[in-house]
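Mods, move this if it's the wrong board.
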Amino acid sequence: MLPVLAAGVLLFNLPRALVRAISIAVLTCVLAASIALFTVADERGPVAVHAGGWPPPLGIALVADRLSALLLMVSVLVALAVLLFAVGQGTADHRPGTAAVLHPAYLLLFGGVALAYLTADLFNLFVAFEVMLAASYVLITLDANEPRTRAGMTYTIVSLTSSLLLITVVALVYAATGTVTLAELPERLAALPGELRSALGLLMLVVFGIKAAVVPLHFWLPDSYPTAPAPITAVFAALLTKVAVYAVLRTQTMLFPRTGMWLLLAVVAIAALLVGILGALAQDDINRLLSFTLVSHIGFMLLGLALFDVAGLTGTILYVVHHIVVQATLFLVAGLVVRTAGTTALHRMDGRTAATGTAIAVLFALPALSLAGIPPLSGFVAKLALLRAAATAGTAGHVLAAAALLTSLLTLYAMARVWNTAFSGTRPAPSPPPPEGGAAAPRTVRRGTALMLAATAGMALTGVAIAAGAGPLSRVGERAAEDLLDPREYRAAVLGEEGGQR
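Not the wrong board. Structure tokens:
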């Protein structure tokens, strides 16, 4: 509720400094609350609250288990870092007018993200997506020119279509079972004919697949994300697609459980891995290249779900956590690169970013190598977990592992290509200092640029911290995976039965 209430307050004409202070303070408080919530959920099991005291199915239940609390904690950390980057960018570029729109829309967006992680019924999951999308429509068209408006229209039309399909699926589920509460649906869906249950599961996969940009439903993302400002692209890439992946994990494991590998999803995962990374290799625009790598690496998350066992889901959870941080960092670094080079086209950069020294180069290298799975970074830890799970899944698992390894090699090639064009070219001659009494960079501009670099560095170091804490994080991921495959504690907490925390 904090981000939503603060968004309403910020709609009033407040001083710009106060707007920034409120936004940062609110997300800091939410981060502290999410850390506490994760600690309780990990130690005691799922924690639930029933709004207004009304139990399901009449009331609204919010529940935090290990998975939702973990993703919420990581997501708010990334959202806070991206907000600091946006504040620095606005200061450095002298864009005071955007603050009145950016901050309330940004907080509302995160309110929707938090609701999606914590809701315990399908209808409020739909509401959460609508809150996110309403805010994202505003954010993606900030400082809009003709290309950005066109891309925003594509994003809006696809999002509205997927939302219409989602509410249709929710209505069909309610018509078939008489409830939309996640805790009540497993038993009622199990009583349905197998064909109807399979149809509902596939419809739900398609709907969330559109929102997660799963191949072949990915066409909208590379045309939409690259046109937005760097911090907006970063938060979209980090959070919006991952919320949809979370919805796939939650609904498919709880409502449509399986035994053994899900071959259809395994094929989709392989297609996503290869189509996305081949698309990235064909790009000359740095933001489109990163957008296609995002599409590709959704396949790693689907890979673990396709295995449908504890080991595979553990790998998926680790990969989602890693990717939220790394993908946001890459888009922030891309914003710094474009700001320095003055272009998004790789062939026009010609090493101009090298003139800024090694800071941006290092900030790019860490997440880029992690995305490619180079040890000992977080991407290696997550991919190793997925490969170990696939290795025990027979021939189909070996094919998945081979596709994952090939994608990792091609990702490394794509990242090396960006490095060679942006950081390894001929360094231009340094600019001479301003003459005596000449104009120098304003102090506010330097301060804004320093804040952008600091926020990006914090994100890069967070990725390193994830790798350093791989052992404890893997154990948390394994417990979260066990919860997904055995949701009895989750259901008990939502329905108020003994054994659940309230």
